[in-house]
Amino acid sequence: MDHGIVTFLTDYGIAPVPLGQAVEERGFDSLFLAEHTHIPTSRLTPWPVGAPEPQPLPRHYAHTLDPLAALAAIAATTRRIGLGTAVTLVNQHHPITLAKQVASVDRISGGRFELGVGPGWNAEEMANHGVDPARPLARMLEHVAAIRTIWAEEEPEFHGEFVDFDPIWCWPKPDRPLPILIAGVGPTVLDRVLSHGDGWLPLPLFTAEQLGDRVAELLDRAAESGRTMNVTLYGGAPEALDSYRRAGVDRVLFELPDHENPDDTLRELDRLAAFVDTGN
Predict the structure, then answer these.
(1) Reduced to 3 states, what is the DSSP secondary structure of residue 192?
(2) What global pTM score does this model have?
(3) What is the dihedral of CA 16, 22, 25, 28, to 10 degrees?
(4) Residue 95 contacts residue 143 (beta carbons within 8 Å)
(5) 3-class SS letters over 26-42
(6) Of the residues 173, 189, 221, 231, which has the maximum number of CB atoms within 10 A of its CB?
(7) pLDDT-derived band of residue 280, with 50, 70 and 90 as boundaries?
């Protein structure tokens, strides 16, 4: 089982290049970055952690660096670790632009990039991008399909409900099938993973038994069509690595808190690396 880091990289904390180098030096396998383009001050949409009323969001939500720009810098200054997003809010990007950005970062990294995707949860944030927050899953899947078409074809075109363009030339293209990880924990998420993804990116909101059952279902359904799937757990507890391994998880991303002092970030990385070193 691989071990990685996921974090909201901000303008007040550790910079991208020192973070990437520190993650690589400590033996982690990957580094994933989260995304929010902005947070509307209205705060009408509840924070999706079960709170019944809107609450102040943690500071880092509004201070997050653009993950693809940050990952390009990290890609150029690391050699081994896998890189990715957890998650890119694909509904807030045009697929042509996002396809080019992701393929460019993948080229810079030498083929180490994975695109984690989600539909987003903040309705006002979507609206500011001109995106109707209704039917976010359908829009996300169509954006993913359009991006894959751009990557796969010399003169791609796409005609859908949300995305429509005639034949285009658009390079660079990934040198290999670039993995797309579908985030989510709902009852139909595995359908989306199997139809549009290469792996599942859940939150740790299941018991160990529930997680194992869902992983087994995913793998069984994938095998029926001759496919393989990987499972990356976002925000797993380092103390629970054995249970994740038994559940069939392929990679655990430890969530790195945002600190203003880079030294505090490095100390937290040292603490998390100790779990990897001991195999716990």
Answers:
(1) helix
(2) 0.97
(3) -80
(4) yes
(5) CCCCEEEECCCCCCCCC
(6) 231
(7) low
